[in-house]
Amino acid sequence: MSSQTAAHETEPTADTATIRLDGLTKQYGDVMANDAVSFAVEPGEIFGYLGPNGAGKTTTIRLLLGLLKPTAGTATVLGADIRHRRALTRAKANVGYLPDTLGFEERLTGREVLEYFARLRGDERRDELLELFRPPLDKPVETYSHGNRRMLGIVQAFMHDPDLVIMDEPTSGLDPLKQDRLHLFLEDERDAGTTIFFSSHVLSEVQRICDRVGIIRDGELVALETIEELLERGGKDVRVQLAGPVDPDQFVTAEMIDVELVDRTARFTYTGEAIELLEHLVQYDVTDIDIGDPQLDEVFKHYYGTDSQETG
Amino acid sequence: MTAILRTESERLLRGTLLLTGLLVVLSVFFLVVFPSIQDEAALFEEVYPEYILALLGVEELHTIEGFLGGYIFPFVWVLLAGIYFAYVSAGMISRDVRTRRMDLTLSSAVSRESVVLQKIAALWVPLVALSLALLGTLLLGVSLLGESVNLIALAMVHVLGVPYLLVCAGIGIVFSVVLDRVETAQAAALGLVFVLWLVDGLAQLNPDFEWVGTVTPSRYYDPTAILVHEEYALLDAGLLLVGFLALLSLATAYFVRRDL
Asked: What are the TM regions of this chain, as residue ranges (chain B) (predicted)?
């Protein structure tokens, strides 16, 4: 990693990608859990892998770790082809993993669990991490709350100081304070050169900390953007207060989506140019207006259609 | 890289202590009744034709060697310990896969082959504990009964029993990698070892079907021959070891190819 140069950072090439998926496909019967997914995660970025539950995020992660075999296509993790077991096993010395379901030996205490992973991989950063994330080390894991389990998971994922950390829904079960702590920690790790692959169905956190995002739906990658591009593409969140009722047929234009017209208030996402919106609105008696960045949730809705509330 | 071996060994400790205690108590019960059946056993041997006794695997029942080889070892070692080894091995992989512990283990730089081998290697715990405890119990019990037994033969009956128990473990580990549900894998392994034990016993009763027993592992471990005749069937033990290695290879080959 030390040989990395500025040129690599501005123009990533195939060789420098920390993770590269190339037509990665996993099929279960008729179901395409991953359908020819291709993208690359560059060194030192936080990559958000976004999708509703059941979209195929965990399948991708398990393929990357060699827990599943691809039906077609392949991927490389730290330069190792996931189809080459030995190479991948070696590469995993520099990988940390925080799964969505944390399988610990329930009878052991947190300390004993960490001892196990320390023998398996090393633990040069254990003490430092335990100052940030504090699971009750002397209690058996079976008595842990969801949040404590997650914190133990975070410690084991980072304690051998890996170059790449793959996290599957890392904040689930953490209270907001600990989520913030994790987000700050991940940003520091990123700045220190660690690459973070971060799957989530929670858009706000992806929006907060990820540098780039890949969106997966029904096993297919539907978008690969920087957060800024994604927000731009998503349009503006607009709320207009009118002096009197308006005719919806006249008021609503093709660029407005998700329109809610209640009494004298209109809320919509505007996907066109800002100047056009202003020109349109001056025709009406507007008493108040609020234009802001949409939540990623709103953007997300456009990719997933109306049923995103149920699946997300 | 022995982290898995170490953790798995510690995990087996509790079950091992329980089983060892149980089998020691059972052996003590057997030894306690020995004096009272000793006379009847002699009568039994006079009444029945020799070939029937031989087929039952019962020889010299009125001697302590015959009693150990014909009663205690077939039951305590071949059946109960065999079932335990199959049962515990059947849970080794399947449980970790089921609880997703395997995901975390395999996210480290450890190969799947190594996982299987380290898990099986952890069986040294019950092997050593059971052998030593049973050996101690029998030695003590025999001397308390005022009998004596050939120490080398008694040691050999334990040593040559190890390959047999490993085959049982091999059966368990194959089920453990093939079947997804822990309970199913354990029931299948336990059931198969029991059925094999039964088949061997039944096959010996009927000369026409005796060949059926050649596929059962217990056919290659004869405590009576070891204790009464001091016949150490090293070749049979070797065959059992080969069988164990074959089962272990099969399990490993399957495990490295499967999706988790």
From this structure: 12-34, 71-93, 121-145, 151-175, 187-205, 237-256
Per residue in B128-185, pLDDT (tens digit) is 999 999 999 999 999 998 888 889 999 999 999 999 999 999 999 999 999 999 999 9
Domains of chain A: 6-226 (3.40.50.300), 235-293 (3.30.70)
> Across the interface, which of B108, B111, B112 has its CB nearest the CB of A121?
B108
> What is the crossing angle of helices B112-121 and B161-178, to 10°?
140
In sequence order, the 6+-apart residues with CB closer than 8 A to the CB of B53 are B45, B59, B61
| A197 CB neighbour count, 10 Å cutoff | 24
Per the structure, the complete domain to which residue B139 belongs is given by 3-257
Tell which residue, B107, B119, B256, has the closest CA to residue A85: B256
Quote the number of domains for chain B.
Answer: 1
Q: Do B108 and A117 touch (CB under 8 A)?
A: yes
Contact of A105 with chain B, judged by CB distance below 8 Å, is answered with: yes
Strand partners, A31: A28
In B, which residues are within 8 Å of A86 by CB distance? 111
Rounded distance between C-alpha atoms, residue A282 and residue A263, angstroms:
19
